Structures are given as structure tokens and as C-alpha cells.
């Protein structure tokens, strides 16, 4: 069996072919006969697990096994405690209410790579980062959740799935899982639930240390009025 993780770049499809000619996993991963576990949106970034282990694919993709996925979300505005509570309890998206989530404001802005296309932001509205942990897999769920409470998502990164984390992988880089990681992943998939102590591997910086460059773009953000 083969097990790999990839740091999927922005505007890359989580599949190996595309008739429209858009970037896919094939442009980055050279290992044959492995497939992504679940999906990560075209305009989202971060950890994608790839394997030929069909049993593991099913367990990690099926919400009933409750394997927790961690997202770092840069939103427009500073969410109120009421908005955060709504996210934690579940919000209604059309006819469905999302399951309870683990949600917190990140006190320090995550030190992540510059996105290939800078985010669009409004000069008179601040941004901040929120960590959201969910086990569901609704279409564009995190973006729809933050929009439902009035704070649109500007950038979305997935640093971890269960016990797996990106560590120092840069966009487009991938690596094989260690035997220990494979054992941990199979254990958590078998019993369901999250892995305590999971760490994304990225450092954070104190708010204000990059004054005038909020948003994690290293000063390369695009402003709209």
C-alpha cells in the first residue's frame, strides 16, 4: 500500500485529469495509482492525503467515522463571540444544519506561504484568522459556514487531517507517510474521532509583528475598494 500527503496549491483540482486543461494533482505528484481521499476545493490550499488503500479511503471520506479535519480560515472582519458560538453549535445552510464544530480565533497569525494569487481585501475592513475543526464534508462547507454568520472567507488552508499535518511542506511538495503516521491514521480511522495534540507544524507570529500587512500575504495583497 502507498500513502502520501501533498500540500495542494491554490487553484489546483483535487483530481488527476481535467478536460478544461486546469492544473491537477498530476502536475505535482509523480507516484502512479494513488488517489485523493476526499476533496479540497480548487480555491483552497493545504493537506491532501493520497493512497491506494481503498478501505482507508472509505473510512476517512465517510462522515460517520468522524475523522477531524483542521482548517485555517482568513475571514473578512473580526467575528464576534456570538458568531463563533453559532459556528460551534452549527449553522443552517439551506435545508441542512452543520454539525457542532471546534472554533477559535487564532491569537497569532499563522506563518504560511504567500498565495500564488494575492487575496482581495477592502482597505477599511480588517481581517483575521479562525481555526475550524469539522468531521463533515459538505460542499464548500467552511466557506458557507463563515458566510452564514456574516464573515466571508478570503483564504482557506487545511493544515491537518486527524493526526497528519503538513509540517514544512511547501505548496506543490509531497512526501510519503512514515510507518508511525500510517499506524496512527489507521487507528483513528478505525475508531473515529480526532487526534489529541495534532500540530500543524507551522509557526505563528504575534499580531502586530507584521504591522500593515494583516492577512498573511507578506505585503502582496491586492486591494479593492
Automatic annotation (TrEMBL):
PROSITE patterns per UniProt: PSI_RSU
Keyword Aminoacyl-tRNA synthetase: no
Domain of life: Bacteria
The keyword Isomerase belongs to this UniProt entry's keyword annotation: yes
Enzyme class: isomerase
Annotated ranges, domain Pseudouridine synthase RsuA/RluA-like: 2-148
Biased composition annotated in UniProt, kind: Low complexity: 189-198
Pfam families cross-referenced by the UniProt entry: PseudoU_synth_2
Alphabetical UniProt keywords: Isomerase
Region (Disordered): 189-225
EC number: 5.4.99.-
InterPro entries in alphabetical order: PsdUridine_s_RsuA/RluB/E/F_cat, PsdUridine_synth_cat_dom_sf, PsdUridine_synth_RsuA/RluA, PsdUridine_synth_RsuA/RluB/E/F, PsdUridine_synth_RsuA/RluB_CS, RsuA_PseudoU_synthase, TruA/RsuA/RluB/E/F_N
Similarity field: Belongs to the pseudouridine synthase RsuA family.
PANTHER family linked: PSEUDOURIDINE SYNTHASE FAMILY PROTEIN-RELATED, RNA-BINDING S4 DOMAIN-CONTAINING PROTEIN
Protein name, entry field: Pseudouridine synthase
Source organism of the structure: Pontibacter saemangeumensis
